[in-house]
Amino acid sequence: MELRRVEEFIFRVLMILSLGIVMISLLTVIGVILWKGLPAINIDMLTKTAEGGYYLGTGGGILNAIIGSLYLALGGTVLAFFLSIGIAFYLQKEYSGGTKLADLTRLSLDILWGTPSIVYGAFGFTILMLLNMRASLLGGIIVLTLLELPIMTRAMEEVIKTVPSELKEVSFSLGATRLETVVKVVAKQALPGLMTGVLIAFGRGIGDAASVLFTAGYTDRIPTSLFDATASLPLAIFFQLGTPLPQIQQKAYASAVILLMIILAINITARVLSRKYTKYIIK
Amino acid sequence: MNIRRLKDSISSRLMLAATAFACLLFFFMLVGLYYRASPILSTEPIFDLLFSKEWSPNAGKFGFFPFIMGTLWVTGLAIVIAVPISLLSSIYLSEYADSSLRAAANPLIDLLAGIPSVVYGLWGVIAVVPFIRNIFAPALGVETIGGYSILAGGIVLSIMVFPIIISITSEVMRSVSQDLREVSLSVGATKWQTIKHVVLRKAKPGIFAAIILGFSRAFGETMAVLMVVGNVYRVPSSIFDPAYPLPALIANTFGEMMSIPLYDSAIMLAALLLLIVVMIFNILARMVLIKIEKGVI
């Protein structure tokens, strides 16, 4: 066999090994979490808040963290949606396309996209100090809005870009304003794709721990107002795992399974939506 | 002016406001963190802060050197593990694999990107740390602090970096024109020679950008690393040592920092450092990727 064929063979083996490592590491992450977490889940876990002492009681469940996470991520996603959809439309040709502002905004969003969430946490904390606020649901929602904004906007922009410009031109030629075109033609055409962007950002928001660590706080109770501290699933995992008590660690495993399930559900829905989207694209 | 035009003009101003906000948000973060970090910057020159080894907030000593070294060790190890594995995987996926394998692998890689970092951290604590403590370290005859080490951090982090490098590299390789490959094949090169001498050479800037983006992700990753790396304050000297990276420092000291003078300022300086490093790497990588997209490279 020629030397170059031997080399090719060796590299092919290495490539398959590498891909195997990537796939197996994913499966072990999910497998280990399920193996540890599934036995820890029971009805009490899902329907009761933590009991038996401030912060890390052994009794009860993790309902406070589940509800808290949903409040935080929903609030952040809704706010980020209204900002993102405006920005994503504004970056198109009929508004600011091709100008310096559009390029600068894209660069800024790309940098923000790569900014570590702990930096968002620190920045969120300075905002809270400035407003004289304590760690609260509102603080968490604000910081998650900022965290989700670049992810959602970039995803939406990519989708809107694929809407054929002929559609817009037809709409303009019938005398529609930019707003009418954007809302009734572009948004309708891009809807499944836009929803995918929203879901991806929601998944990022609900899974992030570092940013809400100082801005949302942690509590055993379900928050009743925007100014209450609130628990969240990622922080529940982090704090509960850090204790020496096995009962509390069980709760951390259960929290991880629930978080993983939410992420899986989001992932699958986003996939289905984007498939639907590509089907309706007019080429 | 009729009502439709009025609506259009109001909405476009609102959109402009949102866009300006996004454009300036990064600037706000920079200024906000700098403002909070400035008290400590005015007491000591930045050079002394970054290269001093002494960290005792009670005595007013804030030396970041051990944290910076901790960050570099963990990030470096993660990149050393992740780069070859993810590059080989993405070459296989984009050049050799048939479409059914690709269709099966891509959703899994997306999923890998979407798993929250604290879940990776939990996995590290349940699986990686005990593995190092019970099997790997004894086999090599080295001491660890219960398995919590740079090695554990590097392994967990490298898995989190896989999807970033793989997805960007695959995209870059897909953008290399098919004609180039065919020319190389037609002069008798094997597939691997074509990949090595033509595709990879053409894709080099993009692959470089992918690695930089992976690096910047690893650099700022907090929770997963914090949970497995040991958080012992000293300058590490091997991968079996524990480390205390900058993001972990920020996360761990937030509760107590308000009670000691200048402590909060030092923590904000740490956040500012992270932001600036990540910004530089991001701008570099994005510039390369934008050029590729426009067909300049």
UniProtKB/TrEMBL annotation, chain A:
Annotated GO MF terms: phosphate transmembrane transporter activity
List the coiled-coil residues: none
PANTHER family, A to Z: PHOSPHATE TRANSPORT SYSTEM PERMEASE PROTEIN PSTA-RELATED (PTHR43470)
Return the protein name: Phosphate transport system permease protein PstA
**Protein keywords:** Cell membrane, Membrane, Transmembrane, Transmembrane helix, Transport
Q: Write out the annotated subcellular location.
A: Cell membrane
Q: Which superkingdom is the protein from?
A: Archaea
| GO cellular component assignments | plasma membrane
The UniProt family comment states:
Belongs to the binding-protein-dependent transport system permease family. CysTW subfamily.
Q: What InterPro entries is this protein classified in?
A: MetI-like, MetI-like_sf, Phosphate_PstA
Q: Where is the ABC transmembrane type-1 domain?
A: 66-270
What is the topology of this protein in the membrane according to its UniProt annotation?
Multi-pass membrane protein
User: Membrane spanning segments where?
Assistant: 9-35, 62-91, 111-131, 252-273
Q: List, in alphabetical order, the GO biological process terms annotated in this UniProt record.
A: phosphate ion transmembrane transport
From TrEMBL, chain B:
KW Cell membrane (keyword) present? yes
Q: Where is the ABC transmembrane type-1 domain?
A: 68-285
Where's it found, cell-wise?
Cell membrane
Point out the signal peptide segment.
none
Q: Which GO terms describe its cellular component?
A: plasma membrane
Instruction: Specify whether ATP-binding is a keyword of the entry.
Output: no
Q: Which PROSITE patterns match?
A: ABC_TM1
GO annotation (BP), single: phosphate ion transport
Any one GO molecular-function label of the UniProt entry = phosphate transmembrane transporter activity
Entries under SUPFAM superfamilies matching the protein: MetI-like
Q: Which UniProt keywords apply?
A: Cell membrane, Membrane, Phosphate transport, Transmembrane, Transmembrane helix, Transport
Membrane-spanning residues where?
A: 12-35, 64-88, 108-133, 145-168, 206-229, 266-285
Membrane topology note = Multi-pass membrane protein
InterPro entries assigned to the protein according to its UniProt record, in alphabetical order: MetI-like, MetI-like_sf, Phosphate_PstC, Phosphate_Transport_Permease
Q: Which Gene3D superfamilies does the UniProt entry name for this protein?
A: MetI-like (1.10.3720.10)
Major location category of this protein? membrane
One family from Pfam that matches here is BPD_transp_1
- Give the similarity note: Belongs to the binding-protein-dependent transport system permease family. CysTW subfamily.
Q: What does this protein do?
A: Part of the binding-protein-dependent transport system for phosphate; probably responsible for the translocation of the substrate across the membrane.
Protein name (record)? Phosphate transport system permease protein
Q: What is the lineage of its organism?
A: Archaea, Methanobacteriati, Methanobacteriota, Stenosarchaea group, Methanomicrobia
